[in-house]
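Entry type: protein chain
Record version: 2
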Amino acid sequence: MQSADSAKIKESILREVYEDNQRLADPYPQSAYLRHRQHLKSISRPFPILLVTLLFILIYFFPNPGKKTQIEPAAPVITNSVFPWAKIIYKQHLPSSPTPIVSFDAGQLLDYDLLLNHNNIRLSSVFGLGVQTIVIDPGHGGKDPGAIGSQGTREKDIVLDIALQLRDQLTKTGRYKVLLTRENDTFISLADRVKFANANRADLFISLHINALPQKEFNVTETYYFGPPSDLHTLRLAEQENRGSEILTGDFKNMIKKIGDVLKEQESATLASTLQHSLFSNMKKYDRVIADNGIKIAPFVVLLGVDAPSVLVEISCISKNEEETNLNSPVYREKITTSLKKGITGYLTQRHAQVVKGDDNGKKIHNKKG
């Protein structure tokens, strides 16, 4: 009995010692599983903060991690060009960093004012335009005699003879195809003259006339190209020459659109200037009192309608008795023809030289005498 009680007492003492040791080793008597879960939580708690920090660094310092690094192109080198719009292209390609790159301004390139209103640019030279077909237009004809002198000399006969000779002289050069709007005493309306020149794709159009200026005391020569009249006399002359044009209103609306044709204006003015200079400088050898009225602009409908550069030459004054006598002389008319031919070939030679050389684009003619 005593041995059994002694054994129980020993077992009780040993259990208490065991439990005391357990409490000393682990002051928080929890299961091992719970302690493992709490350990994992303590470790994972700072991980989201580290992840957010890493993502911020990647976004800030590497905005396009998948895109290849581009090398900024070098600024283009611009040379001195005859084309003024080259400066526009150059400016559009200049590096614009750090400001945003401006999109290419095509509208500015289409500002033809830089090309069309540049005093040192002649379009025929810029685009290398040549001359193949020349149309000579002897004014009046048939039922329309034109001006008539006191001796009965008719303008239509004089200008036709000069036109025929001029065609032959130009054709002999072998360089040009020369056509006449009329080859005999036939009436041709201004509308048909315009259609003839355009249908034959004329590169130059030269209309020949003789003035009648009874108020003038001396012989006068002058050359016109299309434009607004500079004085009342020019307006009246245009009305006279335009009379009976047979051009319909609808056709005229299409013709009027040609106003502002810079190429035509440039070449018409240059041709008029060259012709006038040649005619006056040569004819004054035979007529010391001839007056140079220079080049003028006037609204001649035939000059407006023809697509090509066009001029109208008032060769002399049939209203002067001495000049009328001269005009009736074949030798004198041949001298006039030669003067016109020199003016035309001089213009063509100058134009061809500028197109070939390309170093001088010519200048617009601004000395429009009134």
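Comment: Strands lie at 133-138, 177-180, 204-211, 220-226, 291-298, 310-317.
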